[in-house]
Amino acid sequence: MHLIDGKPACLLITENLTRTHADGERHFYPAFVKAYEPGFSATDWDYGNDYGAAQKAVEAFNTEHGVNSEAAMLIVTTSMFPKAPVLVADIFRANGEEYST
User: Over the chain (101 residues), what is each successive 10-residue block's mean pLDDT?
Assistant: First the structure.
């Protein structure tokens, strides 16, 4: 499980995480999301102008850093709804791991 400041974290891309370049093209820039923390931390990583390719790059990053799609979904959910009835252990379990304190 990828951790930032001791919390489960993942990389996220949405169609809104973009910057328009000087040539008018919209490029996608992923952000880090930490469980139970509202918001996200933007990166300066340019994932190009193809949203599908950007999604695949984010999925690959998360996989390489030990976060599967189900755990990423729970991380994002707890970021959006910090009082959601999701435990840290649930995130680890979704990722196929045991959680120990």
Answer: 94 91 92 95 94 96 96 95 89 90 69
- pTM for the full model? 0.86
Distance (Å, whole) CA 8 – CA 67 = 9
- Burial classification of residue 30, based on how many CB atoms lie within 10 Å of its CB (0-12 exposed, 13-18 middle, 19 or more buried): buried
Radius of gyration of the chain (CA): 14
Buried residues in 48-77 as b, exposed as e (16+ CB within 10 A): eeeeeebbebbbebbeeeebbeebbebbbe
Query: How many C-beta atoms lie closer than 10 Å to residue 86's C-beta?
Result: 17
